[in-house]
Protein 1
Amino acid sequence: MVEQPLATVFGSVGVVYGLLVPIVLIMLFSFFLIASLVSSNANPSRVAQAIFCFVMMGIGILLMTVAALPTVTSVLAGTSYASATYVGLLIVFATGGCIFLWHDHWVHSLDSGSRLVPSLIFIYTVKVIGSLTGLLAGLSIVLTIILGGAEEGWWIMPVTLLLYGFVLYMSTRDEKAPVPPLFCGICKVPKFAKPRMPKVKPKLRVAAVAKKASKTKKRKGKSKKRK
């Protein structure tokens, strides 16, 4: 568990490598891709606004992640920070949430043609980050179990990152994504054959009902005569 999460993250090294480098890479990738894919329906000014909004939404996600991960790890480890640390983490999380919601509302006010490409870049960037985080965390857990020799509480950070990657991936999941045939065969629910009932024609059914009714009437008549 990190003893001073705020000092570690917001230090000079943490700010440069944790915030600025991903943001600069996403912005460069966005500008180059949009410059080659701008269509006649897209307004360059609105496209720039969309890029700005999605970059700020990414910053909001990073701030919420910075505040959430230490809190989750402390809960799983059964330890607690000082009350001032929790207040600071809460402020960071609330700031990130406000930034995300504000710019999400802003980007939805733009036309769909201007925000199409930036939204695709943003969604698939988050999807890649979530997939890699979950995959690496899962491999870390499996390899640690197989190789052994881990310290006590080794599972806390990998499990936290696995949950974080799963949340990121599911938040950007596409329901129309193709599934390989192998997984389709494994995940396919077996269908049991329904018992086939003999098909009876309507006329035969009516005749059978009439015969039963006549037989019951005859039986009743015979019983009355005997009496």
Note: The chain has one domain: 5-187.
Protein 2
Amino acid sequence: MNRTPKLPSATCAATFLLLAQCALLRAADSATPTNAPPAVAVANAEAEQVARDATAFGRLTLGASFGDELDVYGAEAMLPLVESERAALLLNPRGLLLEDDEQEIGLGLVLRRLSSEKTCILGFNAFYDARLADSDNTLEQVGAGLELLSRWVDARVNYAWPISGEKSLGPGVCPFNGSPIPCSGIEEAMEGFDAELGVWLPYLDRHLPTGVFAGYYRFESDVTDDDVDGMKVRVEMRPCANVTLDAEWFEDSGYRDSETVVGVRVHVPLDFWNGLKFERDGGRLPSFPTRITEPVQRDFRVRKLITRPAAPAAAAPAARPVKRPIRPKPEPVCRTYSALDENGDVIFVTVCE
């Protein structure tokens, strides 16, 4: 079945929001005096050097998430391909191991640019993802996304287009009258988008940086009327620059096979010989420009829908033959008549009808 990419109005609105937000931040920062005191200039120079080091070497991220029904383990890297003073093109390979013996792999390109005031990062990414299902089928998709990273507000939107058609499933089991019977079906990758907007809480930035995000997702099937959509809420905490903790809630558990998910990610800078940056100048986060190599916050999993034929309706029990009621025979009506026999004698004759 041919698929025609559909870009919903929500995606267009989110894209406009990202561009408008970055423009506002740039306009606000342009009003800030450029002549900084010498101490501030030195601190800025050190921050820029840290950012250049992070961009030059990239980082490796190891993570795990645990849900109501499914645990996922993953690894990814952000590897700089091309870099300039305020921009970088990064290669983002990624692999996931699902608890139900399925694997997913992905490869993406991430282009990010730091604003001239070094207060926001605008990024674009494009990805290829494949899910190696336990049915021996491979479900594939391509995706694209926009993101805005700033000191206090983050926003992002991602869209996914399946490029593999429906796949046949081998014989399975369907319930029928309380007993399993053999049946077949299909599985497919779903098309859709997810978006989120969040803020970093201002009073925790130097002790336990915490971000609160809210978003919406919707994925549709080309085979049935089934879809997965709903609101989501995510809390992200960074106890140190190299550790990220996540807690997420989804309105529709079909999105991540769970309603609630908690996770942990460990970031290892590939210039590890310089040491892990657990603290910097008394704070818990490194300089903002180092976020240019931060992993893309995107659900890389290929959304999958399995459709099997509905169980046949139970056959109605055979109707019992209806016994016709036996009508009682009517009582005969008898009448007696007088008559003469052949000898001329009077006789009485009774006739019953």
Note: The longest helix spans residues 9-30.
Protein 3
Amino acid sequence: MDFSAQPQINWNTKVQPLVRPAIPEIPTSVPEKTLAAKVQDASCHPWGLVDYHLYLAFIERGRDDLKRQSEVMLLEADRLRQVHVADLLDVNTFAHSPTETHIIAFLNLPMLPLTTSMQLTEQKLVLGFGLQHQHLLGYFFESAPDNLAEVYSVWHEGEVVIDIHIDRFLEMYEYTVKEAMEILGVGMFHHFRESKRELPAGMDLVVTIQFAQFLRDIANLLWEDRSTEFREVYFKHEDHLRTLMSRASRQSWFAVRDGLTIQQYRQKMMGKMQNFTLYDLLFDWPTEPTAVSSPQDKMSSSKLFDVSTLSRILKPNGRVMQGQACQVFFTLIYFVAMIYQ
């Protein structure tokens, strides 16, 4: 037998695979992330906590003067209707407004948990304004849609946690910026007991800045001939607070680059009052609940979040679990920092 010749292939045999590979199903659509998830991805810090400077930057993305003034929502009998700030000068705008206060809503803020390892919620803080009595308003919702116009569907479930006249707000604002910046370490609304819920200090400052910005947007409506003067004065205050938040964020990112844990950074900052304030603006560090002296006290000791859980979440080395988005963002910050050193 000649083994040097190539054997013929038996093409008559039908060969079937022993195990058919499973064909993965291709999803027809990818569910869109919630507003809270998007904000958390954009504002998470490598320590697993919220960087409120990045939070502020995200919620203001694309919201210039013209966009803000054209997207205020007027509360009517059956909806929140989008109007322009200029329309508020026309009495006919309020033909279908159900109350004499003429309430408008202008911003829907997602409330984030203390750390990225905690479960996200649908909690929202909607900022508004009562035109009739000139009160700044904050409505807290345990669960609300991401779209501000759709919040009307749960409007009756909202809890008014901030209700303050603009004169009182400006009095607090002016004093804090000019005389007592350390107040920002606990939050302006919390310090002056003008909120029924204790917001994290950084979130408190976000709300303060957004209220101040809104008053600049409607200055013509409120002060007419003094509107230009008002904008110039309070823009400087607002810009100063934004710079403060930016500095707090930058210092903490460089601390991570230098290998500091969250406890080491806190210890380092405690000896410097100004920097300690900056630290508290960035995070909501666990504190004892505020004592309430009597049932008549306006400030409630309840918090939006249980800060006592933070100590259980921290690992022994002081770091916390962090998402992939945090790691990628920190890597980018690290290389930028190395370039500019």
Note: The beta strands are 72-75, 80-83, 103-110, 124-130, 135-141, 159-165.
Protein 4
Amino acid sequence: MEELARFGRASLAQVAELMGRSEEQVAEAAVRLEGDGAVVRGMLAASAVTALISEVEPARPLQDAEALLRNAFRLARENAKADWASMAVPVLKNRLLQLTDGTFREKDFGAPSIWHFVTLFPGLVACEGVRPSERVRLREPELIETDDRDESAELDPVGKGRIRDDLWRAVFDYRSGKTYAWDETRGRASDHADPDSAGIRVPTITAAELRTLRQEFVRTQETVSEHDAARLAEWVDGAGATAALPRFYRPLWNAHLKSHAADRLRTFFIQAGLDVPSDLIAHASPPTAPVSDVEHARRRAHAYIDAMTGEELGRLSIELSVIARVRISDEG
């Protein structure tokens, strides 16, 4: 409620445009619903905005907007932003416009402003700060870490293939406790609070199954140095975030996840007697990625260090600039 109170306000003009009414009509309705304090200097209180727009039928489903929000944060992560899981609201708006070639309009999703728009997803983002420094923070950034499906053609035989966002969430969103069902009429997977609600339930992976999947992935790696083996073991037993993997294995793990999701979904549709969606793209097995010269050198260095005795390690010379970078990383 506090987030809505701070972010959910909107101007009379914004709400009037959304509702297709005059500002005078909106102001009268707001006062009638929420009292004299509903309108102050042309701005509507958050409670008044919520009450007024409840009758507005969005032109697009909120699931589409949620997918856009996730992609906006994914874009920030791919651009190597230090605190990619948090961004100013105007920056978020710019990213949404960038992702949609300038066509994004919060009004399409039943929101009069970008600030009110972000309050529609309390399970996905937290609203922080006050104007003019409002920010939104991703509540579970690890979900974005494992949802990195855009890989280069060299790492993915089908190019930049993706599992559809609604189906990807249905398979991997086990943390939320939501139940996902296939809506044959709309041709998409939707979440339902009631496990007995209509629709054919999509089998969401469990935490135990995902851990088994991580174990299987590690077993398929043919050549692993002792250095990488230790990090992979920690990753298997930990939260399983992609960022915790040695860099070389991240695209392979993402491809492995996509392959598993596609196989799981195909099995689901076939067993349910449904047509497999034509936009479900997958590869049969994790691809073999070409190793860059830098990665070759890095892996050779790991192998040399693994073979060294204690005395040889004591004579090992490492540049001070490298030591400084490792220290900074450890402290961070």
Note: The chain has four domains: 2-53, 62-145, 165-271, 293-331.
